[in-house]
Amino acid sequence: IKPGQAKVQMVYEINMLGDNYDVENPAHIESFKLSSTRIRNKANYALGVVSDGALHLNPVTNVLRMKPDLTYLDDAEKKRKAAEDEEKRRMLGLPKEKPKQVTRQSQRRAPPSHSKARQQMKIRELMRNVEAEEWRELGYYPPHSEESLAERARMNNTSSSSSSPETLSQAAFPISKIQYLDRTMQLCSTKPTAQRGGMKAALRNKGDGEGEKGE
């Protein structure tokens, strides 16, 4: 996954010893990959967890659609075409083609407008951020494993242990109480309002009270 870009890839290994595997396929595909595309949310969604008779809502920030990643077909087609061209040249006794020299012609262009230049800078910055973020591997854990139970317990956002700094640092998808409030109420974190400020203060006071009580 790339959490910052909301990108997910799922890789499935193919049983190459199965009866349905095409051993004569020159691509020799060993795995099958699914890549995500983000879907624009038409409504606000939340995932509910019932614990001790109480319903705890967890906001869903992104909805992704998984599609087959077919880039390997393009690579296989390029290799196949290059091999065919090489075989034809060998049979005809033709020498290998030398790379063509590309002559670049400069053409005077009108300077882009300020708004267009700013838009291009934003696009380049976005592409740099996408490439800079490294893929983070996630493992699969059975539903009743220790890791799955810990992540499920974190969805009870009112518990003091689920939002402790130690738990957040070890979680795959960390979220604090303040972030939970922002996402649930769909408020912009850069423009605080009196309503959100009051609720944040209440959460902080509640958290401080829980800490003092625990001591």
Automatic annotation (TrEMBL):
GO terms for biological process: tRNA transcription by RNA polymerase III. Residues 81-100, 205-215 have a biased composition (Basic and acidic residues). Pfam families: RPC5. It comes from the Eukaryota. One of its GO terms (cellular component) is RNA polymerase III complex. InterPro entries: RNA_pol_III_Rpc5. Residues 81-120, 150-170, 190-215 are annotated as: Disordered. This is Uncharacterized protein. It comes from Bigelowiella natans (Pedinomonas minutissima).
